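Reopening this one. Same input as before:
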Amino acid sequence: VQLQASGGGLVQAGGSLRLYCAASGRTLSRYVMAWFRQAPGKERELVATIRWDEGNTYYADSAKGRFAIARDNAKQSVYLQMNSLKPEDTAVYSCAAKVLGAASYDLWGQGTQVTVSS
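Same output, byte for byte:
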């Protein structure tokens, strides 16, 4: 599976952005998809996950109520809708995938920069 992330940019605080992660190479029915982010000087943080087959989602506390992860089966894509953005959301966002049951994410797309100005 190859992952291609896009959709980052510069937005004012309170604004919205949608990130996209297009997957290719094989079907994703046995995968968990995720968005991570890493701000300068900070550790990488898991933001949200979605199980491809059932659609079950998980959100970090920092994302609950503001972000939404979703999948598009036809396009083999995962989206991260980010609303009410804050300056502390500024980071490089990356999409990742792992096979169901795997301990860690081993498939990564390139990062996309999200910058939220105050």
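So the earlier flakiness isn't reproducible anymore. For the record, DSSP finds no helices and eleven strands in the chain.
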